[in-house]
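Structure (tokenized):
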């Protein structure tokens, strides 16, 4: 006796039919089949699609020098320290 015993599967099938009804299950099966067909068609179309050559990358334009002085940013620094546990205030529940 496992979790997927044939008796369990029959009871599960009966419950699904009672909840959804046969018409909705039929529509669901048809919709699922159509989506699988569409997926397969899209995959086969992509495989047969000829590869288009990609244009060479364009070099970015050099920025124009300005007469204004740009501010110099200092180099990033690392802060050395020691971690301390955070003390939380007591709760008043």
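Design, position by position:
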């Amino acid at each position: 006796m496992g979790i997927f015993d044939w008796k369990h599967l029959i009871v599960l099938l009966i419950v699904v039919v009672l909840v959804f009804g046969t018409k909705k299950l039929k529509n669901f099966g048809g919709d699922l089949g159509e989506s699988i067909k569409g997926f397969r068609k899209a995959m086969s179309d992509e495989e047969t699609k000829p590869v288009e050559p990609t244009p060479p990358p364009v070099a970015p334009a050099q920025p124009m020098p300005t007469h204004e002085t740009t501010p110099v940013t200092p180099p990033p620094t690392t802060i050395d320290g020691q971690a301390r546990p955070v003390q939380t205030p007591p709760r008043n529940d």
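Reviewer-requested clarification: The radius of gyration is 33 Å. The chain has a mean pLDDT of 79.
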